[in-house]
Request: fold
Amino acid sequence: MKAYYSTAYGTSEVSAYGNLPDPVAGPRHLLVEIKAVSINPVDWKIRRGDARLITGFRFPRIFGADFAGIVRDTGSSVTAFRQGQRVYGSQSIFFDRHGSLAELRAVDEGHVRLIPDGMSFNEAASLPVAGLTALNGLRKCGVSKGTAVLINGGTGGVGHFAIQIARALGATVIATCSPPNADLAIRLGADETIDYSTGELFTAGRQFDAVFDAHGHMKVWQAARLLRRGGTYSSTLFIPPPYLSMALIRVLFNKKMLSANMRSHDEDWSELERLYGEGKLKPVIENIYPLEQASDAFDLAMKGGFRGKIIVTI
Reply:
């Protein structure tokens, strides 16, 4: 099969497009003919070697957790899927070095769902990591009808889903983004946008019921200043120390600081699919690359500044 893979940790210089052996489906696996893959920050961070003590040192390694495609074969114990069905999902690449950026991938059936009617392969591939992360982050923030929520990084991969989900929940949505992206944020459902580059966000004295940091780089003291008493801040990244300060902020001001990564319970998938079916959730996809140009997709993802999701088609 054709695949995009790396022979060592690093950047595009240690990656290649070429032939690798076809995977074989185990008893509980589906062999999926991949049609589309989305690039998430975890992909280029693992490729760079950020988690090498966890991911190990076996190469070649294929990246890409999210996928959408067609079932080519099923393992002997699989009963819920059959050949020819359109499926999508996400399987972690922390311990699996055979990711989705290839013509074929063997995926555990527990990580696979049928693609809803009307959803394209590109849209399906864009949803799992980013959509589920946005949903979990907003839930951890307690976002519901009437909540005033600030979404930091409102037009990125996670943020553009978060705006739409928060709007569907009935929240008042304020999003940070660059001025050229303000119109997109409003179209997605933001009531207001703030230019993140001016510093106005931290000097205007405004506070919110919840802050979802889809960009992931807000400092603890910044987040605390933006929260009303009883509010919650959640970040897509692991929140580093000082933990004593966070504990004091919680005790003295009843302001919570939480990390919110992807959660993939059945009800989470069903919620995303319901919102899509109702026309309340629509992936933004402006950058699409063929598999042989996957290095360009990774380079863009690392550079940042793009809108919505980056997709690689196969």
